[in-house]
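Friendly challenge for the regulars: who can give me the structure tokens for this chain first? No prize, just bragging rights.
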Amino acid sequence: MDHTDDPETVVGELTAVRSELAQLRREVAELRSDRAAGLGEARDELQTQFTALERSLQRHTTGTSHNTVRQVEAMWQLFPKVPRIRAQMPPSGGFPMEARTLLHLSSVIEEVRPRTILELGGGTSTIWTGYLTEELGTRIVSIDHLEQYLHSTWDYVQRHGFADRTECRLAPLEPVTVDGEEYPWYSLSAFSDLADVDLLVVDGPPESTGAKARYPALPLLQDKLSAGAVVVLDDTNRPDERAILEDWARMLAGYAETDQGLSKLGVLRPQASGGAERL
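First reply, four minutes later:
Bragging rights claimed.
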């Protein structure tokens, strides 16, 4: 007799097969459940990321729109200050000074009425400064560390007719030591003949050149300032520049920051009496 045909054996084998099939069904169901749960978690994570990105984009769009309106408003206030523009103006914003900062700078110039302005980092601000000081006959010395920036600024200076009282000087970055720290900063030979600077405008070197890149300006140029000179620093919305301005305020006896919140420009003015005396 062939045992494979034995009913009991066949029933046993069928039972075993059914058990295996049931186990396979359970495993498949578990896999489907796990997959569904994983897909649900992935979907929830993607939804969370999408919502966060959407909100970030909304904030950015709103902030950009508000900033654009503020820049346009500033430009509308700025142009009437220079009614006789002789050539196309250089662009503002981005690396050049933005309109709100230029408007703020114009107010400082109107108050100080400087005879000599020293500008670290020229360009758009150089041309606006030229127009804003035209009636004063102010001497403007603009410093750049790269020839391409210097040539661009000088080209604008010539086209706008300020070459007779504006100097564009090349000062490559060199190592200088200030308060025991080394910085890449403008060649000191570019400042050797300067004196009685009434307004120091610091908009360079770029932050990409190193930490607190603009800090050496006041320690190294303080003896070039006139009594009662005003010092301004651009980009004080950034942590490094904010720290630099606070360091400078402590360095200058009788000076304090003014005009806070008007623009990215930080302004140090002498309070009451006294000039730029070192503490």
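The longest strand covers residues 225-233. The longest helix spans residues 7-78. Your move, everyone else.
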